[in-house]
Here is the input.
Amino acid sequence: MGEVRKLLAAVVVLALLGGAGLALVLFVGAGLSNRPQAWCQPGGSGVDVAGVPDGEVAGYAGEQLQNAATILRVGKELGFDPWGQTVAVMTAMGESSLRNLPFGDAVHGVTNPDGRPTTSVGLFQQQDNWGSYAERMAPERSARLFFQALDRVEGWRELEPTIAANRVQRNADPRHYAKYWADAVAVVAALAGVPGGQPTPTPPAGPSPSGGPSPSATSPGTGAVPAVPASYDLGPVAPHTAAVAAEIGQRFAVAEIGGYRENAVDSGGHPAGLALDFMVGDDAAKGDAIVDYAIANATRLGIDYIIWRQRIWFAASPQDGWRLMDDRGSPTANHMDHPHINLSPAPGPGAGALTCLMASSVRPAAFGTGQWLAPLDAPVSSRYGPRVLAVGDGGEGSHFHAGTDLAAACGTPVYAAAEGVVTYAGGPFRGLTGRVVFVDHGGGVETSYNHMDAGGVLVRSGDHVAAGQVIALVGNSGNSTGCHLHFGVYENGRHVDPEPFMAALGAPLG
Ligand SMILES: [Zn+2]
Ligand SMILES: [Zn+2]
Here is the structure.
């Protein structure tokens, strides 16, 4: 089960941006003691489930993905955020491989502690004390029973997902579900934007209603189970860019997607980690289908503009439709073989659900360890200390630079430097401009993080964060002349130089 972790690598990329394989272990095994962020409110960024992918996701397909979509829809209806929804999908993976089984472990001779054969059936393998056979065999109803029971587990949000699932399922091995978490995240990621429990729609491969070129007659992949690569090598793109690549790539079985490129004419595109090239070769029908889907979901996915077959479409002025572009020469330069989808710097609400899940995930062993970690694996671009600002320089609004600037692409995840409680998350505060987060680590020590863009603050005041938890995304708000994190350290209310402070704790910056 789940041996083909198609989306996993793409999902891990989300958590990895910014660098250095420090988070590669994130979804692979280790205990995820964490909880969802307040930012991930029920409904708001919940998985708003438009068509289940035809292919496989993490080894799951067809009926299994339909069942996952049903679980997500029910969870959303009941007010569970993506974290809770993922716990439920993980549980059903561990119980039934997401299949609505009319039998249970009893066929393998498994008995209850009192010796009676088990009576478990359905997606969640619920026994007869859960409800009637018919109820337990109705995916929607059994999902509802699961969520209701989860809701009764005190403090489930604070528990590791497998422990929370075990409290509901009362199975013998509390860690049984842990190995399904990564796959559950991948499936939830792929299903974001999928209407739950509906029959699989046929792929939208018809002629483009936008008046595009007629599709080619030969689309070998259409309608068949597509061959989708295990992951896309996108380079350091923004998390929501990776989320959009995963969703569209899986849905349309795209074998190759271009992401980050250092040298490109569009400074707000590939070099910014905000552009995706979906390579379709001469399969114009696939390109049309991708483009139609992207337009239909432009708001949810946070799409800024699309270039396809020498035409450009802007999300901000959809009434203008497609505009013809200058002839740039080659077919590739004219985008005849690939739709170029450019995202806005801030994630759309759908991609945001993904970012939300990522934000709920921490590096292992980050609670209660006293551990300190660099908030960003990126070079120091400006040090703490007096600054000589030229008139009109912009700077940071002060002649004393009260923190350390770390330069990274907008959208790069920012980690809490240590465990603590968020004491402020909002606009300009304590001399800092743009969006600001303060975390109190106890003992008179605080850290600050700022310049996040809209959508880039992933915590709220009062949140308890773990060391290494993703709390923000690098932005460019306030007095800032480029994407960077201004990181501050305060002792007893006074700012100190973050570089020696962090170095002394074994977490050097830069
Ligand atoms: Zn491109
Ligand atoms: Zn700064």
Observations:
- Residues 239-348 form one domain.
- The chain has three domains: 8-191, 239-348, 365-504.
